[in-house]
Write a structure and sequence with these properties.
With about 80 residues, the protein is mainly alpha-helical. The chain has helices spanning about 10-25, 30-40, 45-60, 65-75.
Length: about 80
């Protein structure tokens, strides 16, 4: 595995990372890795692109009429 050294980390950012590490019962190093992994997962497709893909996956499916179903349920 690679080694990463980060210098000149702003004090407030370091304090936040340390606070998160304590809250999550992780070492500072483990917390930094978890936060970087979260950033990687968020750096993927934009929300618009994810919505387009989801719409394409759901195309042609009968998802029903939710409002109609609720009204019928209330009428019972």
């Amino acid at each position: 595995m690679a080694i990463l050294t980060i210098r000149d980390v702003p004090d407030d950012l370091y304090a936040l990372l340390k606070q998160l590490a304590v809250r999550n019962r992780r070492s500072l190093q483990q917390e930094a890795i978890v936060q970087l992994e979260h950033a990687r997962s968020r750096a993927g497709d934009s929300p618009v692109e994810r919505a387009r893909v989801l719409r394409a996956q759901l195309a042609g499916r009968d998802l029903g009429d939710t409002v109609k179903d609720i009204r019928e349920d209330r009428a019972r």
